[in-house]
Amino acid sequence: MKYLLFVVCLLPIAVMAQNDKKLIYKNSSLSTSARVNDLLSRMTLQQKIGQLNLITFVNENNSTNPLDNKVMQAMLAEF
């Protein structure tokens, strides 16, 4: 029983140690092309399509102030 408890306590530490290496797309010393290729290879098709469908709302003064929910819903309904 003590062995099982030891293994269960040690497992999260081992998992965190593996995630400690820096991901390629987060390494700012590498080229932009290498970082973009790494990030795109990690993304699912659904995530890539979601990035294409991002919507930016700009008010009349060309600044990005927060919009209230009713205005946002009306703008999204037009799409």
UniProtKB/TrEMBL annotation:
GO terms for biological process: carbohydrate metabolic process. Residues 1-17 form the signal peptide. Keywords: Hydrolase, Signal. InterPro entries: GH (IPR017853), Glyco_hydro_3_N_sf (IPR036962). GO terms for molecular function: hydrolase activity, hydrolyzing O-glycosyl compounds. This is Beta-glucosidase. The lineage of its organism: Bacteria, Pseudomonadati, Bacteroidota, Sphingobacteriia, Sphingobacteriales.
